[in-house]
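Consider a protein example.
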Amino acid sequence: MTTAEGWTAAVRDRLSPGRLLPLGTTAEGAWITERAVREVLGRAASAVRGVAPGTLRIGPADAPEDPESGALVVTASFGAIAGRPLPELVEELRAALLAAAEGGLGLVVDAVDLRVAELLDAAPPEADADAAPPPGPTSPATDDPVALAALGVAGVAAVTDTLGPPVRRGPDGVRVELAVTAGARPLDVARAVRTAVTAVAPEDAAITVVVSDLR
């Protein structure tokens, strides 16, 4: 792969919403994009002294005991900067990722697999602070009653259209896509949105909430 191809792949990876990951158990009907999760976990990793974050992936656990548990595995590689014992560094990073994923977001994490990709004498140069961040989901205007019900919930920053219309109705129920205010726990917000949307959706319709962004 050429340098240009590498940059293109990196940008594509940052912009892609990735797979949908369950918030809580799969029965919750609440999901979040992998991109939003990666951003939160990346910040948590960067805050650990002595860690230079590398690649990070989140996916379903292999053959979980309960398929509906929503259990996930976080896999991360990182550079270890000289100055701290490696076992101590690994455990602090694992704890930080777990706290961000479970406490901060509401994911169910089965395991955190860490790999030391390189040993560094000093921290690598920081990213350009003036560089524009990748564009997030747009905030379309809508007068749909389901969207308006969602927007009335504390912690909802906007409805979004990353995966399609902000509100999608079909034989499998009603899906609403939204952005959550940074600092609010996405699982708690999604639960509240499901309750609010139930009041305006067709009776007995299955309600699914997708969190596409944290703002």
Summary: Residues 86-105 form the longest helix (20 residues). Strands lie at 20-22, 30-33, 51-60, 71-81, 108-120, 156-159, 167-170, 173-180, 207-214. The two ends are 34 Å apart (CA to CA). Residues 1-15 have pLDDT under 50 and may be disordered.
